Amino acid sequence: MPSDLRKVVLSENEMPRAWYNIAADLPTPPHPPLHPGTHQPAGPADLAPLFPEALIRQEVSTERYIEIPEELVHLYAVWRPTPLVRARTLEKALDTPARIYYKWEGCSPAGSHKPNTALAQVYYNVKEGVKRITTETGAGQWGSALAFAGSFFDVEIKVYMVRVSYDQKPYRRMMMQTWGATCIPSPSTQTASGRGILEKDPNSPGSLGIAISEAVEEAAGRDDTNYSLGSVLNHVLLHQTIIGQETLKQLEVFDDRADIVIGCHGGGSNFAGISFPFLAENFAKGAKYKVIAVEPFSCPTLTKGRFAYDFGDAVGHTPLMMMHTLGHDYIPPAIHAGGLRYHGAAPLVSLLVNHGSIEARAVHQIPSFDAAVQFARTEGHIPAPESSHAIRAAIDEALKCKESGESKAIVFNLSGHGHFDLTSYERYFAGDLVDYEHPESEIATSLSHLPVM
Ligand SMILES: *Cc1c(COP(=O)(O)O)cnc(C)c1O
Questions:
Q1: Which of 34, 84, 240, 336 could be stapled to 424 by a disulfide with Cβ–Cβ 3.0 to 4.6 Å?
Q2: What's the predicted TM-score (pTM) here?
Q3: Mean pLDDT throughout 193-210?
Q4: CB-hemisphere CA count at 13 Å for 60?
Q5: Which residue has the least CA distance to atom 8 on ligand 1?
Q6: Would you state the CATH architecture of domain 7-15+68-111+235-439?
Q7: For 132, which DSSP code?
């Protein structure tokens, strides 16, 4: 019998001391990244201008567990372990026999799961003497997470922020400034990539792909500067697995076991963070957790993208990765879940979708805001528009339980709060949001630009 507890908080000493590396347990071997020019497997030397050695080693590691440095554990302890909460009021409102749990990652200083990897990445850069890091940000969550981590370690952070978000979300920009980072709108005139885009379209709203091109170009061109990515790459997903490991321990205290594990999916990091430790049990112990990645209908990478080699950025500076992609020059409609507007997906998540180990699902933005508001009015927390996609799927699964009378345990990652996304809520209440159709023809066009292998 599951306990009556409302929430389980672990003590600092119970924090996981190692990250879980799913590369040790994959059903089929991963496809290597390829050099963008030669199309030969990209080795550590190709990544060295951008990343510190320690992170490159993690990127290609097949060791099952990688120890979390003690110094980092102490920094995580500022807000970790994060609570696992039973959404009892929501359950009651839905009149469902399901048990719904959410892992609350919005309590970090930057308000999302992203500091889990931001701190780790800055830590390893500092160990190798790096003084300056460039990055991109969509909705501003990653930029603010890296800015926060940079301030802990006294590293200079420069953030290229997607133009639409820069204009729509000034508070994220102010957070970055408060933590001492520089934030400029992308496309910018500071890089050849940005200038090229602006020549074609002076009013370009920008995209994550374009901002990545700019940040990578600057880091590759300067000896004192490295680059940092907030999602997609293996080492980023690795750092996030602290989330799922904590969740497994917390469910034990609840005396419960998950049936369904859900995360929203932009580049794959919070989804991997909650789900990979559960998948470890599926692979090694024959567990049968059903794992669902939820993405927006207007940027349906996992459900409608092609599993193919493509660039991680818009211009073609990054290694080619085997992943679900809508085409590197696809610019998704300006939905409010800015953090889910990415043309590609984590190669590890893509491989698992392709293999049938996990399920992918797309939801429209209005139903996901419906879910967010229902959640806010029952559980209190106002979710990030990205996280709302996971809530939508969790509620849908709970409603299925109501129909079938099954009492399943549903666990989802509440990846962040929406305190700086309230304009999106305002537009939702005003009836200004639209559910975009599948942009079939745009996707067909951008897919026709995939690199020829
Ligand atoms: C960035 C972000 C996401 C999407 O990125 P993933 O790498 O897919 O996790 C989801 N939720 C929140 C709150 C975010 O900030």
A1: 336
A2: 0.96
A3: 93
A4: 14
A5: 266
A6: 3-Layer(aba) Sandwich (3.40)
A7: E
